[in-house]
Specification:
- By secondary structure, the protein is of the alpha+beta class.
- It has one domain (4-199).
- Helix content is 44%, strand content 12%.
- The protein contains nine helices and four strands.
- The chain has helices spanning 4-21, 29-34, 49-59, 81-92, 114-121, 134-141, 170-173, 175-182, 187-199, and strands spanning 38-42, 69-74, 98-103, 127-133.
- The longest helix is centred in the first third of the chain and has 18 residues, at 4-21.
- The chain is globular and about 40 Å long.
């Protein structure tokens, strides 16, 4: 029988490969994964705060060559989107070297504008915290892109680059590029694709 941890990793793998990479939402996602700079960890329990903070302490000791992006996956978190966002805020307070955003299977699909579309991009199979190293994002701002998610510098004009401020939701600031990508596809087909990814 497949363990909860391995099942969660399998769902996440499908999400990365069949949604993020297949739709070319980020040209750096594949590179980050294939070069081994993506760290993924599954946490048991409804709100495993202590285990998460311990993992973050270890991640903060890693180098950029070791970890650019970390995905902390919570398959047993059942309290809903709002509670998970509160958990994200709690985790953010302990971070020094990473930005943190929340992904969740119940986030809505609304492609009416760029800010609302961000939620759909983050509709992962399980509640997940994405940690992106600040140094990695700073290198992107300086014009030397490296691995992260949902950041395609080829779709950002030189005039827009200074707008990449140091904030916990840098991806929100480049959401227009991702909205254009999503709007190339039929919304119903995108829904079916994510449903298939979630169910396997």
């Amino acid at each position: 029988m497949e363990s909860i941890e391995s099942a969660a990793l399998a769902r996440n793998d499908r999400y990365l490969r069949k949604f993020v990479e297949a739709l070319d939402l980020c040209p750096f996602a594949r590179k980050c994964r294939e070069t081994g700079r993506l760290h993924r960890q599954v946490f048991r329990g409804d709100r495993p705060t202590d285990a998460t903070l311990a993992a973050i302490r270890e991640l903060e000791q890693s180098t950029e060559d070791q970890v650019e992006v970390a995905l902390l996956i919570y398959p047993e978190f059942t309290a809903g989107v709002r509670a998970f966002e509160e958990f994200r805020d709690e985790v953010r307070a302990s971070l020094r070297l990473f930005y943190c955003v929340a992904f969740h299977p119940d986030l809505p699909m609304d492609l009416s504008d760029a800010n609302r579309a961000v939620s759909f991009l983050r509709r992962s199979p399980d509640a997940t915290l994405q940690l992106v190293r600040i140094a990695t994002l700073e290198r992107v701002r300086s014009g030397r892109p490296t691995g992260t998610f949902y950041l395609d510098t080829s779709r950002i004009s030189a005039a827009e680059l200074p707008a990449l401020q140091r904030s916990a939701s840098v991806s929100d600031q480049i959401a227009e590029a991702n909205l254009r990508t999503l709007r190339k596809h039929d919304p119903a087909e995108l829904e079916r694709l994510l449903t298939a990814v979630h169910k396997g």
